[in-house]
Each structure stands twice: as C-alpha cells, then as structure tokens.
Amino acid sequence: MTEYRWIQTEVHDRVGLARLNNPKALNALHPELMQELVEALEAWDRDEAIGAMVITGNEKVFAAGADIRSMAQASAVDMLLSAYIDLFDRIGRLHKPVIAAVSGWALGGGFELAMACDMIVASETAVFGQPEINLGIIPGAGGTQRLTRTVGKYLAMEIILNDRRLTAEEAARFGLVNRVVPVDRYLEEALELAQKIAQRAPIAVRLGKEAVQFALESSLENGLRHERRLFYLLFATEDQKEGMQAFLEKRKPSWQGR
Ligand code: DAK
Fold it and tell me: Hey, which of 6, 26, 70, 146 would you mutate to test ligand 1's pocket, going by the most ligand atoms within 8 Å of its Cβ?
C-alpha cells in the first residue's frame, strides 16, 4: 500500500478509509494533503476490490478548512492557479460512494469537503460552519452552492454571511447529515454503512449515485430522462439478471460487477 505523509489509509472489508493527518493545524487542507487524498480515493475508485470509501479526521476535528497560513499572502492569480480547487472537483467526480465521518470541527474547506462527499455520518460533537467571512472572503470550494441546495437560501445566508455554526443535531434536522451517533461510534457507523453499500451490486450503486447527483444539476424533465437511460442500461448487466433470478429462487444474489 502507498505510504502517504498527510493522510493515513486502511482498507476494511471492501471499504477504503482515508484519515486526514495534519493534527498540528487541525487538519488544515493544504494542496499536498488534498493531492494525497485525491490520489488515494481515485486509486480505490479504479480498484474492483473496493466498493465504497470513507474520509475522516479525528475525534476533535474533521478539518478546520483550507490552510490559512498558505493563503494569507496569496494573490488572486495564485488562487486561480492553485491546484486546490481542481482537487476538490475530482472528489465530486468519483464513481463510488464516499462517506464523510465527521467529529468535531468541520469548518470552511473542511465543511466543503464533507459536503462534496455523498453521505455524512456525524458524531454528537460535530460542528459545521463556513467562517470564511471572518477572513474577509467567502467559501470557494462549493460552500455557497452545495449548502444552499441542501438547507435553502435563508439558513445558508446566515451561515455564510454571519458565521452561524450548526451542531450535529441541527445539521441532521436540516438534512445535511445522514445520522448523528455518539462520538465513540461515528467511525464504526460510517464504516458499517460503507460496508453495506460495498456489498451491493456495484454497477447499480455507481449509476444510482450518478442519477442522484444529476438531480441537483438538471431540470426534472432532463433528470427523469437521464434516470430512465441509466435504468435501461442496468438491464444490460449480468447483475440485473442475477438479482432478479436470486429473488425468484429465494436466495442471496452473488454480484459480479458486470
Ligand atoms: N489553517 C491553518 N492553521 C489552522 C487552521 C487553518 N484553517 N485552523 C487552525 N489552525 C491552526 C492554528 O493556527 C493553531 O496553530 P498554532 O498556533 O498551534 O501553530 C492550531 O491549528 C490550533 O488552532 P487553535 O489554537 O485556533 O484551536 P482552537 O481549538 O482554539 O480553535 C478553531 C479551533 C477550529 C475554532 C480555530 O482553529 C479556527 O477558527 N480555525 C480557522 C477556521 C477557518 O477560518 N476555516 C476557514 C479557512 S478558509 C479555494 C477555495 C476554498 C478555499 C481555499 C481555496 N480556491 C478556489 C482556490 C477554502 C478556504 C477556507 O477554508
């Protein structure tokens, strides 16, 4: 397995787990860390032995945002040319489901990273926020867009314009997280969820993810058309035949990912 400096990777039963590992700066996300993270995730995305991925931090912090130290003196052109945002976009393009397991702070780019994932499992201690306004900037890695699509305009305005933080409980109420669990359970819970998805028919999981993502980017009409094409496509897979045959024969299906 590749050795990384800024992340730690493990594989648990068809699930790739990446732990952010920049504890001295509360897991601040600098480009080298993001580069390693994306490389690890993309490798798992290509690996048929992996069915889903989890990104986590530690109990105290998921990530406190992009590295303020490295941005403090940056020019607009430095930011424009920074690798950071392309790396973020690459996470959004992964085919396999990615779950963020969040405990403690998920601020700024840390919150944006969690929102770029497909599901979020939070510990009771998780705190979500976009404090960029305190630095004289706004979120730049999807915060204004993904957050608004999830919680709506009014709350998004307060979070972005006035650094309103959300507790885990509030985040769950506003549909931002899938579940809130005690702090000693959040990673296990995320891994279990990922492992269950990783046992399912891989192509159906992949196309299901694609269809849900498309819903956020299209009109209902185009979304329905897109869904139907993906639905028809699944009837070209061996797994569809196996899944339906197994149901009829009252046995567990054996998925091939073909
Ligand atoms: N960057 C760098 N260092 C950070 C950091 C960060 N985001 N957050 C914390 N640290 C460092 C602190 O400086 C401190 O370092 P030392 O002084 O020990 O050397 C250490 O971590 C511990 O932090 P604190 O002493 O502050 O710890 P507390 O428990 O008192 O406070 C906190 C925890 C999370 C509330 C606080 O650290 C905090 O407010 N951190 C900053 C949160 C923040 O403002 N995040 C937003 C960052 S801006 C882009 C698109 C998007 C972005 C960038 C580029 N492009 C399109 C190119 C994203 C921007 C952001 O995320």
Answer: 26
